[in-house]
Amino acid sequence: MIDELDRKILNMLIADGRQSNRIMVKRLAETGIRISERGLGKRIARLERQKIITGYTAIVDMKKVNLGVSRLITVKLSSPKNFVQRLGDMKQYLKEAPFCDFSARSDGEFDWIELKIFNNTHQANMEADLYRTWFGDIIDDYRSYDLEVYKFGWQIYEEKDFNSFIHAMQKRSEEVPVIKLK
Questions:
Q1: Dihedrals φ, ψ of 112, to 5°?
Q2: pLDDT band for position 32 (50/70/90)?
Q3: What is the mean pLDDT of the chain?
Q4: H or E segment at 125?
Q5: Domains defined for the chain, CATH in brackets
Q6: Cβ neighbours of residue 97 under 8 Å, at least 6 residues apart?
Q7: What pTM was estimated for this model as a whole?
C-alpha cells in the first residue's frame, strides 16, 4: 500500500510528470517533508516496480492541436441474441478508436459512458452516425452532449482530504454576502 508521502509524490507526478526530483524535493520541503533526491528516486522506482505508476504522459491543450470538440456519450443497451459478441465488437471498436479518450460500463440509468474528442463537429457527427449504424442492433438509447471542459485531470486523495475541502467550501459559503433582490 501507499503512505501519505507516496500520495504526495503521485499527485506531484500527476500534475507534472517531467518535473525533476530536485524540484519535487524542494516542493516537499515547503510542506515540511524532508527527503533526499536519492530517497525520492527510490520511492518513485518502487512505485514503478509495484505497477502503481504504469507510465508517464503529456497533457496537451486540445484546442491548440485542433481537437476542439469534446463529446460525452451515454448509451443504454438492448439485449439481442448475439449481445455478448456484439458488445465485444463495440468494446474493441472503442479500444482502437483514436478519438475515444474514456469508455466505461456503468451501473445506473445508462449502461455505457464514453468521452470522445474530435477535431470538429463534422468529424463528431460522422462518427456518431457510423457508431449508431454499426451498433444500432444493441443500442436502445444513444445520447450525445458536447462539453466545454473546465478541468481535466485527477488527484489521489483520502477521506480526510475530501472532508477538509468540503469544510473549507462550507466555511467559504458562509462568508459570501447574500444579495437581496428588490
A1: -145, 140
A2: very high
A3: 91
A4: helix 121-135
A5: 1-59 (1.10.10.10), 62-147 (3.30.70.920)
A6: 116, 127
A7: 0.69
Q: What confidence tens digit (pLDDT) does each residue in 89-125 have?
A: 999 999 999 999 999 999 989 999 999 999 899 999 9
φ and ψ at residue 152, rounded to 5 degrees = -135, 110
Q: Is 71 helix (H, G, I), strand (E, B) or coil?
A: strand
Q: What Rg value do the Cα atoms of the chain yield, rounded?
A: 22
Q: pLDDT at position 179, please?
A: 67
Q: Please list, residue by residue across 127-158, b when 16 or more beta carbons sit within 10 angstroms of its beta carbon and e when fewer do.
A: bbeebeeebeebbeebebeeeeeeeeeeeeee
Which grid coordinates belong to 41?
528516486
Report which secondary-structure segment, H or E, holds 148.
Answer: none
The pLDDT tens digits of the residues spanning 4-26 come to 999 999 999 988 899 999 999 99
Q: Is 146 helix (H, G, I), strand (E, B) or coil?
A: strand
Q: How far apart are CA 152 and CA 145, in angstroms?
A: 16
181: left (phi over 0), alpha (psi -120 to 50) or beta: beta
